[in-house]
Amino acid sequence: MSEESDSLRTSPSVASLSENELQLPKQPGYVCSLTEELITKAREELQEKPEWRLRDVQALRDMVCKDYPNLSTSLDDAFLLRFLRARKFDYDRALQLLVNYHSCRRSWPEVFDNLKPSALKEVLGSGFLTVLPHSDPRGCQVVCLRPDRWIPSNYPITENIRAIYLTLEKLIQSEETQVNGIVILADYKGVGLAKASHFGPFIAKKVIGILQDGFPIRIKAVNIVNEPRIFKGIFAIIKPFLKEKIANRFFLHGSDLNSLHLNLPKSILPKEYGGTAGELDANAWKEVLLASEEDFVKEFCRPLPPSSTLLQDTLMVEGITSEVQGDDSIRGVKSQLYSCY
């Protein structure tokens, strides 16, 4: 680690207050579940030093208590580690990510109110979303999205976003996923203008804001298959909100499965995508989430404190705060999409 990175860990800006002064409740003890191989990977890629890990967590905890005493966040070692890993143990960036994480949940009630698997049985049963049973060669879990399975007349697009968020929350509980990250496989077969028009700039900006700056997960690649011409319009809506690093991780394969297999091997893919891992089973992931119902009820179905001015003032990242979608933006979306035909 560089001297500059080390200084972040010992900077006086974290000005630690003792636990006695803060009267913090005793936090559950952390037990590392990473293999030796992943510990080495975390050290090399995330600047995580096992010998400093708990000190780093305490430093972030002190910053939360000092700067955001009303944040109403978990201060468990394991929970805070997610944010440190997602920001390579840069204290300030990890703190901002944590604040964004809570702020976006409070600013989009349509997505985050009553967020639990049992409230999303229709989405989870539609086949819109699943997680493949095998990770890729880098250890990344593969999230498979199939927008063609969504029927807009049945429920709004925000229900799909809720299902995606639940999935990410479940995945990030794994320390292995915190280190390795995830890969997205999105199949746009059958997606036409009527369906694509639901994903306008307002929705795009909010979702990308959460994924890039409001959730502690590493997205290592986004593989798009069977994209129709309309996808050029969809991507034109998305791209302005993407950071260059993330934009460079988008791979458009069309119907060329050989191209897909260069990124994701046949051995982990279902036969629908030219793989050898059997048929795609969306129901298995549905059952995983439903089995976690109690955890989600505890986390997302309790009253939250109102968004304070303090929190709103800290949202430096575009796409996190609430906005009103106007008629002009809707007309702009349809214009972009029509131009692709």
CATH architecture annotation name of the largest domain: 3-Layer(aba) Sandwich
- Total number of domains: 2
Q: In terms of structural class, how would the helical and strand content be classed? A: alpha/beta
Instruction: From the alpha carbons, calculate the radius of gyration and give it in angstroms.
Output: 21 Å
Task: Assign a percent range to the helix content.
Answer: 40-55%
For this structure, the CATH topology of the largest domain is: Phosphatidylinositol Transfer Protein Sec14p
What is the strand arrangement across the widest sheet? 1-2-3-4-5
Q: What is the CATH superfamily of the largest domain?
A: CRAL-TRIO lipid binding domain
- Proportion of strand residues: 5-15%
Mean pLDDT across all amino acids: 85
Reading off the top of the CATH hierarchy, the class of the largest domain is best stated as Alpha Beta
Organism: Phascolarctos cinereus (Koala)
InterPro entries: CRAL-TRIO_dom, CRAL-TRIO_dom_sf, CRAL/TRIO_N_dom, CRAL/TRIO_N_dom_sf
Protein name: Alpha-tocopherol transfer protein-like isoform X2
Domain CRAL-TRIO: 116-281
